[in-house]
UniProtKB/TrEMBL annotation:
Matches recorded under Pfam families: K-box, SRF-TF
Entry GO MF terms: DNA-binding transcription factor activity; protein dimerization activity; RNA polymerase II transcription regulatory region sequence-specific DNA binding
Keywords: Coiled coil, DNA-binding, Nucleus, Transcription, Transcription regulation
InterPro entries (UniProt xref): MADS-box/MEF2_TF, MEF2-like_N, TF_Kbox, TF_MADSbox, TF_MADSbox_sf
Annotated localization: Nucleus
Domain MADS-box: start-end pairs: 1-61
PROSITE patterns referenced in this protein's UniProt entry, alphabetically: K_BOX, MADS_BOX_1, MADS_BOX_2
GO BP: positive regulation of transcription by RNA polymerase II
Coiled-coil regions listed in the entry: 107-170
One cellular component term from this protein's GO annotations in UniProt: nucleus
K-box domain mapped to chain residues: 78-170
Organism annotation: Linum trigynum
Domain of life from the UniProt record: Eukaryota
Protein name: Flowering locus C
């Protein structure tokens, strides 16, 4: 007696869906482990449950390293398959292309044409220009910050000088008033002594 074929549609019963997810997840991880052992592969498996819980499996390397490698390879493949050739390539993908086809021994079946090499050269020059511009921006950032601080300190200095001038003029006025009051008291005391 064989199994009946399961119709591929969403399972409406929540508990049945959870049970099916658990069983199939275990089977999927088992198959990933088997293929990695049998074929000596690096395998990464990432699954999110309906509730958002992460389940991952890796064989040969960590999931993070395998995904980074996938991302780099995918960027390089996108760059190669674009109909403009190498235009619009990210610096990381460009570096990977250079390393793969120019620095290392290129494979016999994968050779860059003269047009591809010219585009690669243009991309390298563009990337260098962008890198130099970013470097200059990073070098000038502290200078700009110092100039802003200098202007703020100048403003504060001017404000303090104004406050000192105002306080000094107030002190002179107050000193004159006190001096006059003291003289009046001395005269009054002298007059009392004379009488």
């Amino acid at each position: 007696m064989g199994r009946k074929k399961v119709e591929m549609k969403r399972i409406e019963n929540k508990s049945s869906r959870q049970v099916t997810f658990s069983k199939r997840r275990s089977g999927l991880i088992k198959k990933a482990r088997e293929i990695s052992v049998l074929c000596d592969l690096q395998v990464a498996l990432v699954v999110f449950s309906p509730h958002g819980r992460l389940y991952d499996f890796s064989a040969g390397d960590s999931v993070t390293n395998i995904l980074k490698r996938y991302r780099n390879q995918n960027d390089a493949n996108d760059a190669e398959s674009s109909n403009d050739g190498l235009t619009g390539v990210s610096p990381a993908a460009l570096l990977q292309i250079i390393q793969r086809y120019v620095v290392e021994d290129p494979a016999d079946d994968v050779q860059l044409t003269l047009n591809d090499l010219e585009q690669l050269e243009e991309q390298i020059e563009l990337a260098l220009t962008q890198i130099r511009a970013r470097k200059m921006q990073l070098m000038l950032q502290p200078l700009k910050t110092l100039q802003e601080q200098e202007s703020k300190l100048k403003e504060e200095n001017e404000l303090l000088q104004q406050q000192i001038s105002a306080a000094a003029s107030d002190n002179n006025t107050a000193y004159g008033t006190i001096k006059g009051s003291v003289q009046d008291v001395v005269q009054a005391a002298t007059l009392q002594l004379l009488h």
